[in-house]
Amino acid sequence: MLLADVIALPACLVAAYYLRLGGGEILERYGMNAPLIMALAAIPVFYICGLYRNVVRYMDISMLRKTGIGLAVLAVSTYIGCVLLDMPAPPRSSLLIYWFIAFSYVVCSRFGARNLLRTPLRKHIKAPRVAIYGAGEAGFQLVNAMRTSHAYTPVCFFDDDNRLANKHVAGLRVFALSRLDEVVRKYEIQQIVLAIPSASPERRRIIVNQLSHLSIPVRTLPTMAEMVEGKVLESSIRDIQVEDLLGRKPVPPRRDLFSKCVTGKSVLVTGAGGSIGSELCRQIESQKPSELILLDHSEYALYAIEHELRERFPDTRISAYLGSVCEQEFVNRIVREHRVDTIYHAAAYKHVPLVEANMAAGIRNNVQGTWCVALAAAQNDVETCVLISTDKAVRPPNVMGASKRCAELIFQAFALRPNNRTVFSMVRFGNVLGSSGSVVPLFRSQIQRGGPITVTHPEVTRYFMLIPEAAQLVIQAGAMARGGEVFVLDMGEPVKIIDLARTMIQMSGLTEKTPGNPNGDIEIKVVGLRPGEKLYEELLIGGDTIPSEHPRILCSREHYLTLNQLEPLLDALYTACDGKSTLEIQTALQKLVPEYAPYTPLAERPPLPDAALPPSPLNQSTANAPALVQTQRAVHSPEDPGEIVVGHAT
Predict the structure, then answer these.
(1) Rounded to two decimals, what is the model's pTM?
(2) Pairing relation of β-strands 553-556 and 486-489?
(3) 156 phi, psi to nearest 5 deg
(4) I need a surface site. Which of 278, 310, 365, 390 has the fewest CB within 10 A?
(5) What is the tens place of the pLDDT at every residue in 601-641?
């Protein structure tokens, strides 16, 4: 480059002379002094501008500005030097002509060399042909990044703005969506990348539905929240996640609520290694607590979150305890020694079929563990204690949901204690996307194995929320509490699980295998509801809600028990758990939670003594029951609300 510039730059000035004045006598008139000064001065000027320090293969457009400035300085310096040294100065207009010629030479030589150096690399890479959805700034940057990396071959743009149709962006044509099928076939598009980081989940969902019939992978750039640096890189492209489609436009947390119970305080999180617990820890650390105490009974989960937090937040004191919330003295000692100000109780068994099969263990952990945490908070005058509850606590047909409703009753009862100094509250919400028990990772692994995807029932619906949003709302809800409230998070619209499965198949660039499409890739198989599973979830036991200070948090008014009413019922429940009798556990649980209506397959239910059944035609051998009779349901007798009647349900 140095040798080429020493030769070419004086030649550029001579060419400018000829263009300005014409004729062969031009050098005799002005001499070679100015071209020689130009050649000698060009090297240090270009070096200062950084032209010689750039790797030619990766030279970018920013060098044009530096080159233009350097050449302007060089031309002016040459003219001034000739005047000061009393040499024949070149015509001023020829210097302007020289600037254009020299600038063209530098640009063409550098970018020509860059293209030549990249050509051998292109020949050995078979990059997928990609169309980019979104002909905006992000799409423009993405095309330039793709051209640099060669991992993709950008072919064209699609955009839903008809004003851009048939225009060109970054040298690529923009097509209207009406020509989607035609263009994909004609140009053999292998992937489509969404370059619309500011799009809401609703708009992303619409776009993915528009592209789903093409049966090619649809990928995306990160959202605005993920693109902290703001620069689009080819490596930023990732597969579309379900979270991109089911999430909502976030509501920024209110700083006064977000920090009220956390900033400068000692905070304890139980179940800190779980999906919600770990995200609570991250959100809490962002608000600079004086100390964060982690409690979990899973060694690996506790290690993982502690290690992550110590790396990300080295200035905060972090203590990690391995143990169970059911150990009263253990929990009490932690709260007392660390002078805990705020507790977020997220520790619970939440997997419905597992808890249904292990009722005693689930109740001990979810109910007795909650009692231990609430008692420790009350005895040590903790300022705020928040229970993380679930929508499965509403009219539960399973032990897990009923046990979480018991946990809510415990917090409500402690909030009603006379001279109570702790603000107890509960936050109830539905499923969080990506949690350990979520269907999303299950479906994803089933798709990777080639199917089938298993769905329990075609009509099953669930509420979904992103884990970070849920954690932020939990913290804010706890800050609004005055004592005994059940806060309900606005979960948006429920989602049919079978539709979620189909969406994930489409996002993978695959097709569903059906009788009408026997050559499809992934089959969806309906396997039947699991023990204790509901078709749909609810967030309210009653319909009485009060708006709160936050648009996505409601306050629910629900029935409660005092401690005097609650304690004997809990003792009876613990006694039933010690006896291991399924029916006794369900009976004791239903006395605590009247809306609990368990469904258990007949084949799995132990035989009932005749005394348990009132005189009835149903008090017969189940062997003579109709084939449609598949379950037994425990309900309240209309004569005695405390009596449990076991009846058959089709």
Answers:
(1) 0.65
(2) antiparallel
(3) -165, 175
(4) 310
(5) 433 434 433 333 333 222 333 333 322 223 333 333 333 33
